[in-house]
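Schema walkthrough. Field components (list of strings):
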Amino acid sequence: MALILHLLQQMCVYLVIVYMVSKTPLFKIFTEDAPRLPHKVLIYLVFSGFCVIATTFGEQVDGAIANTRAMGAVLGGLLGGPVTGFLIGLTGGLHRYGFGGFTDLACAISTTSEGLLAGMTAFYLRTHNKRALLFRPMFVFGLTFVAEVVQMLIILIVARPFDQALALVEQIAPPMLLVNSLGAAFFMSIVRDQKTMFDKLSSAFSSQALKIAERCVGVLAKGLNEVSGSKVAQIVKDETNVGAVAITDRTKLLAFIGIGSDHHKPGTEISSRLTLDAIEQNKVMYADGVEEPYGCSLSPTCKLGSCLVIPLHSDTEVIGTIKLYEQKNKLFLNINRTLGEGIAKLLSNQILYGELEEKQSLLTRAELKLLQAQVNPHFLFNTLNTIAIITKRDAEKARELLLQLSKFLRINLKRTSGLVTLGEELDHVDAYLAIEKARFPDKLAVEVDVPTELLSLKIPAFTLQPLIENAIKHGISQSVEGGRVRISGALLDGQVELQVEDDAGLYIPPKNREGLGVTLVDKRLKKQWGKEFGLHIEWEEEAFTRVSIHLPAPVLEAAQ
Amino acid sequence: MISCLIVDDEPYAREELKDLLSKADDIEVTGECSNAIDALGFINKHKPQLVFLDIQMPRISGMEMIGMLDPETMPRIVFSTAYDEYAIKAFEHHAFDYLLKPIEEERLAKTLGRVRSDLRPQLMEEIIPQELQHLPCYLGNKLKVVPVHAVEYVFSDLSGIHVATAECYVHTHLTLKVLEQRTSLARCHRQYLVSPDAISEIALQETGAEVVTHSGTKIPVSRRYLKSLKQHFGYS
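Field assembly_structure (string):
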């Protein structure tokens, strides 16, 4: 009985130490699902140490030592795997061997096999997807129990004389079986609790971060200003529950939400040294109010007592800061510090994305301008030539052509990047075709077959015009005999299909990319309606070139 | 009288120029063509002294057309264009005659003055493409533009110049001399040019040799050209 109590006492000391260690970050290693090599080394060191201490402080019983060494070997094996377990057992065993006594060899063998047994069990469970069992205290209790039974058997088999061994086993078996199994079970339960807590904490943390991310989407797309800043500050304040949140640009406060908003007024210049340092040095600044004194630079009665300032970036440049405050009597949570830095990164990314988007849309607009500015000078001067000649022969016809030309140029110069109706786009095309027909009276035939109900369909301006210009410029006008251009529209399966087809069939597939005109048309259609819409080209040499455009027909359906 | 041809793909443009030229007593418009291919045939056949040539035309541009003309039948050229910065720069640089459309009468009169004082054709080597990419041909009466790389061989007989590709057999207004100069086709006989890429074997014979093309046609090689043909393939 005295032995049991003694061993229990020893075990309790260990558990207290373990409990204390469990509160440090070091303990996290034991909760890992698959320990890496450096962690295995640490596990080896810790549990070998366990074994050594257990042997050293064990109770001398008839030339043998009653101890809690098995706990170390079994736990080490369970957490570290077969190799680590074996090594821990071996170390503990060799150490025990050094103490001598008639059971020295038996104990050395049994401790080594206990470590190995536990390691193999862990390996088996891991490979069979039953890892959860590892952390079950009852399971660990059972395993340690079995391991200790094995130890007792080994003592009986190996230690001589047998009579003495049997007597020893009778005496030490019950306390050692009980205490080691209990100890190992308690240890694992601490590990498990810690693990559950870590998991809960990190999932709470992730969900909080995700929620902020989700709510912030798009807010900063238009850049950092007072409106977007105060929206973001509100979101961060809601989700983190800190005392106050502020957003600044490089020079002034953009938004302030929370305690102290009575004197932290948006629009005022940044006055806090901390913030200016964060901007200048591009560094996260933190004043906890204890070691690093924090005082509101605006009002001596301000309740805020600690502050975290994180710079916001666009590319490499600091464009502002986000500041998290806590009241004087409240602790600034570590989790909020980490979260704050994460939020700053997230916001920086969003600002960057917004800028990229803006740039891209600017680029498309610039490309469109370029395309429209490309009133083909050939076309223009040849048209002027044609009109000059016709003026002499048929003044009325010349006037008509001049009107068509001015209509064409007027639409071209309007340079709208928005939507127009198909009818308006066809007007533009008509003006162009009327002129081309005048230039090549016997060469060019035009056929337009677009149902009237499609004329109100909205399409991006300059969708058809470049395609028809291509059909003439690279198609018909390159064909010696002349040819026909056909423009058609149809409603197929809830999609509108517009086609521009010429019968020259002189399309040459581009080596790397389509011409600017075609690419831009496709890009704008996809931007407007998504990837499944757009433009594609079919052709057969010397037979036809057919450019088809597919768009959804929602406007039309609404009209019916 | 100076005989002259107008080449322009726009009918109004041709008509206008004809009107303007009718005011000059010593100019006789003997023909009008709406494309370079017809113009080649006309020039080879009627040998006009002066050609008004539009640059931008279907399939074969005005510049390409000049590269297809035999230097012996080369007429004096006056270019005309409504807009072509690069060409205009080149014309200015080489002092070639050109007219801007719409044509001003004074400008035309000045150009005609220059032409009258010296009707010799100008050397245009520097502005014309040295290597022809496609050949204007006829299949019966139908125009067909054949890419040079598709040609297996070309030969001449009494009825003209014939171009053979793996798929078809057409005739052209281009002369063997021009084809030899401006394409990768190699002379193998007085009447034959062959594309080195189309040769599958060269069989030596007593009086010369015979080339077999990829499509199996046999082409005669005369002793005179055998050496240069062999050199082409690395045999000395």
